[in-house]
């Protein structure tokens, strides 16, 4: 139970911690000042959503997200959101590929070559299909969490830990709703594909609560660190480098490598969600379908990483609010219908 629970927890975190999140760009777009309460609310809402999605997925024994989506939204709306998820996963994976190119520019790798490298690595992963996906997350995500927390804690210690939480100054709390909503569609897409592999209810609780606590803690510490370098963030494509600017160059290289791995895990999650859905229409080995998807996405990465994040992420956050409301209400409605 614990082994599988942790495996699903790392899958959830791997889906979340991608180019937008690990770079700090996504947190900066949604949170910023007066956001402590918003981040706490996000952690709670996120855990609830993961619990509901995993429970439905396990009950349906699903191998892709459509049965989960139908249970949450109903037949008619699920058709609209099915299309939205496909577009969302496609565009977010493009963002990941663009982020891979932007990250490798730090070590003087041309942007176009960086996107080719990360695309090729995603295709290679799917030689092992689902097993490759979960094994990769279980290996990479703990390393990423340890290093990211290490950098943030070290940064705060240099600043004298000036973190202060005040309940009377938390006007940005609605950001919790849009930030949680932003991440709902990829969660449905990825967790809907593993329903037939969930064996025990305890796995769901471990994965949901564990991921909420870890992501909430990292988000709070990261946001507070970004606030302390707010004046420099405009100068950087990737806000994390504003925190790292006074660190030795080898630390920049290490975090660039880990950031690239975070981008890689989310690019893989996006392709995984698309692949599990498109297998109804496209027959063939997983790696071949992944190669086809990456080939279509590659030309779109020329738009640029920060532009894609700043435009698409807030837009999806608003569009997904209905899905978030449906998820939060699902246990109440489901319990009432069961009592009739």
Automatic annotation (TrEMBL):
Annotated TM spans: 7-24, 36-59, 80-103, 109-127, 139-161, 173-192, 204-222, 249-275, 287-309, 315-333
Superkingdom assignment: Bacteria
Keywords: Membrane, Transmembrane, Transmembrane helix
Name by which UniProt lists this protein: Membrane protein YkvI
Organism: Halalkalibacter suaedae
Record lineage: Bacteria, Bacillati, Bacillota, Bacilli, Bacillales
């Amino acid at each position: 139970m614990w082994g599988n629970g942790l495996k699903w927890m790392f899958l959830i975190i791997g889906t979340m911690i991608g180019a937008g999140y690990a770079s700090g760009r996504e947190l900066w777009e949604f949170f910023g000042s007066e956001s402590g309460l918003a981040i706490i609310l996000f952690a709670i809402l996120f855990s609830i959503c993961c619990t509901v999605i995993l429970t439905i997925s396990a009950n349906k024994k699903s191998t892709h997200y459509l049965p989960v989506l139908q249970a949450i939204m109903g037949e008619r709306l699920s058709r609209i959101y099915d299309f939205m998820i496909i577009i969302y996963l496609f565009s977010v994976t493009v963002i990941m590929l663009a982020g891979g190119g932007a990250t490798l520019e730090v070590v003087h790798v041309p942007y176009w070559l960086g996107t080719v490298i990360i695309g090729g690595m995603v295709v290679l992963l799917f030689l092992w299909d689902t097993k490759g996906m979960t094994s990769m997350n279980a290996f990479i995500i703990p390393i990423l969490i340890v290093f990211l927390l290490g950098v943030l804690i070290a940064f705060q210690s240099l600043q004298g830990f000036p973190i202060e939480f005040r309940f009377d100054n938390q006007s940005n709390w609605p950001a919790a709703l849009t930030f949680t909503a932003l991440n709902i569609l990829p969660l449905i897409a990825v967790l809907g594909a593993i329903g037939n592999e969930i064996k025990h209810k305890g796995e769901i609780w471990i994965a949901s609560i564990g991921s909420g606590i870890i992501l909430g803690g990292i988000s709070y510490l990261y946001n507070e660190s970004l606030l302390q370098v707010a004046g420099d963030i405009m100068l950087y494509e990737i806000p994390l480098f504003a925190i790292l600017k006074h660190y030795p160059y080898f630390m920049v290289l290490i975090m660039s490598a880990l950031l690239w791995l975070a981008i890689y895990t989310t690019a893989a999650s996006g392709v995984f969600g698309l692949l599990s859905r498109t297998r109804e229409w496209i027959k063939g080995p997983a790696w071949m379908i992944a190669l086809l998807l990456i080939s279509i996405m590659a030309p779109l990465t020329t738009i640029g990483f920060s532009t894609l994040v700043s435009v698409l992420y807030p837009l999806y956050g608003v569009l997904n609010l209905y899905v978030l409301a449906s998820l939060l209400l699902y246990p109440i409605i489901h319990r009432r219908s069961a009592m009739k």
